[in-house]
Amino acid sequence: MADLARLSGKSFLVIGRAGMDLYADPPGARTEEATAFTTALGGSSANIAAGLCRLGCKAALVTRVSDDAIGRFCLNQLDAYGIDRTHVHSEGGEARNSLALVETRLENTQSVIYRNGAADFAMTFADVEAVDYSAYSALVTTGTVLAAEPSRSACFRAFELARAAGLPLIFDVDYRPYSWASAKEAEEVYSRAAAICNIIIGNDVEFGFMAGGIDKGLEKARSLIGDGAQIVIYKMGEHGAITITAEGEVQTGIYETKALKPTGAGDSFMAGFLATMAAGSDVRTAVQTGSAAAAIVVSRVGCAPAMPTPDELAHFMASADS
After folding, report:
1. Residue 322 predicted with pLDDT over 80
2. Cβ of 256: how many Cβ atoms within 10 Å?
3. CA–CA distance, 266 with 279 (Å, rounded to integer)
4. Does the residue 60 lie in any domain?
5. What is the chain's alpha carbon radius of gyration, rounded to the nearest angstrom?
6. CATH classification of the domain holding 235
7. Torsion angle, CA of 185/186/188/193, rounded to 10 degrees?
């Protein structure tokens, strides 16, 4: 069992991709009709790191980016958000960076993601073994890092090294079918990762996927506590979330907001949740704060640039109904 009090150090090591997001402009435009696009830092892990930095924590990213203009865009963006990129390396050859074309639309939202020859999947043992894990408060990763080799094996090696250093392991399931060779492979790998980690966050569809059926998702989430996890958060969209610990279960609702898009909610939830836990709050408060952060991000353009500051989050929670 990990010492979750270590989160108070507010220094997070995040493993996973950084990419470029292109948003059809103006908001509401469909991609095929757009004549302009705005750029932003993207990639689930980079978004989480950006959110943590916005909320007063420190975050370092471990990944690879392409050795080209898009990769350099990502490096510049990491610097702009204050994300430590000491362990972000460039991958040459035919590797290409993650690129997403996204719409700021609430209904019939289209998202086209280019992941062929993804540079972040080239992360190796050497990349994760170069990290001084004792310098961090926790290790955070998302499911996309596990979708291909050598990134998958490198991530599991990072889990081993982080555990040996006493770090809590935090896993966002983040299932993206297009990244995986098969659903069966994804189910097996995610179950293996979940069995190792201390805090696991996913939605009802993702837990259902891991369990082999949507109706079995909550049962799967509960079983992870029995297997050694300390906190499991089962998100249910507009129906809120069920937070499961060894002490029992707590259900919380969502914050009402005028949403512009559905994307970015999971990354902002993770950042808000972890920053609040790091500040010493109880789990319920951390989940509610994560929900508020998610509500803010879906009401703004972009993901990383939409992440709230502490003042924005506090004002929103004080004025909104949940």
Report:
1. no
2. 11
3. 20
4. yes
5. 18
6. 3.40.1190.20
7. 140
Q: How many residues does the chain have?
A: 322
DSSP letter for 14, please: E
CA 291 and chain centroid, separation: 14
Q: In this predicted model, what pLDDT tens digit does every residue of 209-238 receive, in sequence order? A: 898 888 999 999 999 999 999 999 999 999
pTM score? 0.97
How many domains does the chain divide into? 1
Per DSSP, what are the bridge partners of residue 99? 20, 114
Parent domain of 199: 4-17+43-92+116-319
Q: Which residue has the tokens 């004002």?
A: 315
Give bridge partners of residue 14 from the DSSP assignment.
61, 140
d(Cα 15, Cα 157) in Å, to the nearest integer? 12
Residue 64 within a domain: yes
Asked if residues 185 and 148 have their Cβ atoms less than 8 Å apart, the reply is no
State the pairing for strand pair 58-66/111-114.
unpaired
